Amino acid sequence: MPYLIDGHNLIAALPDISLADENDEAKLVLKLRGFSTRAKAKCIVIFDRGLPAGASKLSTSAVQVVFASERSSADSLIRRRISQTRDARNWTLVSSDREIVGFARRQNMRHLGAAEFARQLGQGDAAGSGVASPEKPTPSEDDTDHWLAQFGADE
Fold this sequence. Notes:
Blueprint: E1 3-6, H1 7-13, H2 24-39, E2 43-47, E3 54-55, E4 63-67, H3 74-84, E5 92-94, H4 98-106, E6 110-112, H5 114-123, H6 141-150
Parallel strand pairs: 1-2, 1-5, 2-4, 5-6
Antiparallel strand pairs: 3-4
Helix pairs in contact: 1-5
């Protein structure tokens, strides 16, 4: 089952990533990569303005990363994606934004609150897949250095 994720809404629900962190998006993407591997699920994560708008270099085949433009917002991009999804019943929206959740329900899309999904990420259990992971997974030093360089944090 694919997931459509309200990125900053999810970050706000995570105990180990802060919205004040300039690398918060990259850290979430690393978590989502691990989740998508364990759950064998695709994820589309949408963020408000940050990096240049559109698809990001952070994207992989399993985790598509999208940033809203200055003239748009993550909420409007999420609503557009929901509207354009032909098989909405097979998708799960991850957000605690009432307006977006209500819109998704009207389109027959499932949803998980950000806090509930954050617990699943923290457990490393891939929503019941039975595949356990370390209590506190951390990216390798090479992965961290790579993504910090992508965000220009090494300058």
